[in-house]
């Protein structure tokens, strides 16, 4: 009887693990070549909730957001995690772009908003990497 109970528990645990989205490499690399720090509002949460090092990409620098942070913020919407990008250190201001992210396949869509186009930003995204260039030419 104990053997059958152990098999049942093993089967339930295996089925549970299969239902959890697998993250092959959800580490997100962000390169900010602009004159402004950047943050994002993701699922109604400001990226600063991840802390200043993970949640804010400083101007003229790169930032790596680890798998665990991605899963924390995108866990409810693993294949349709929408981020509104702001060029401030605290999620204020106009959105300059909208990114849609999948924890299994990376960025599926990256679109500049009208405000981002007007300000002269350039956005490139592929896989698990995002790069921001351009923007207002004056210093912050």
Total helical segments: 4
What does the average pLDDT come to? Answer: 84
Task: Give the spatial strand order of the biggest sheet.
Answer: 3-2-5-6-7
CATH class: Mainly Beta
CATH T-level fold name: Mutm (Fpg) Protein, Chain: A, domain 2
Termini gap: 70 Å
How would you classify the helix and strand content by structural class?
alpha+beta
Query: Which value, in Å, is the CA radius of gyration?
Result: 18 Å
What is the beta-strand fraction? 35-45%
Low-confidence stretches: 1-24
Q: Which architecture would the CATH scheme give at its second level? A: Sandwich
Kindly state the number of beta strands: 9
How does this model look, in words?
This protein has four helices and nine strands, in the order H-E-E-E-H-E-H-E-E-E-H-E-E. With 140 residues, the protein is an alpha+beta fold. The protein has one domain: Mutm (Fpg) Protein, Chain: A, domain 2. The strands form two sheets. Strands 3-2-5-6-7 form a five-stranded antiparallel β-sheet. Strands 4-1-9-8 form a four-stranded mixed β-sheet. The longest helix has 18 residues, at 2-19. It is globular, with a radius of gyration of 18 Å. Residues 1-24 have low confidence and may be disordered.
Topology (SSEs and partners):
Blueprint: H1 2-19, E1 28-32, E2 39-42, E3 45-46, H2 52-55, E4 61-65, H3 67-74, E5 81-86, E6 95-102, E7 106-112, H4 114-118, E8 121-126, E9 129-134
Parallel strand pairs: 1-9
Antiparallel strand pairs: 1-4, 2-3, 2-5, 5-6, 6-7, 8-9
């Amino acid at each position: 009887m104990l053997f059958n109970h152990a098999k049942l528990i093993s089967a339930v645990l295996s089925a549970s693990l299969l239902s959890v989205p697998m993250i092959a490499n959800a580490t997100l690399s962000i390169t900010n070549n602009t004159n402004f720090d950047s943050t994002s509002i993701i699922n109604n949460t400001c990226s600063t909730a991840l802390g200043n090092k993970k949640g804010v990409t400083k101007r003229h620098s790169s930032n790596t957001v680890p798998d665990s942070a991605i899963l924390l913020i995108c866990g409810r919407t693993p294949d349709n995690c929408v981020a509104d990008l702001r060029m401030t250190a605290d999620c204020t201001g106009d959105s300059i772009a909208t990114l849609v992210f999948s924890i299994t396949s990376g960025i599926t869509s990256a679109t500049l908003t009208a405000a981002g186009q007007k300000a002269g930003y350039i956005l490139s995204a592929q896989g698990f990497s995002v790069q921001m260039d351009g923007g207002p030419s004056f210093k912050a």
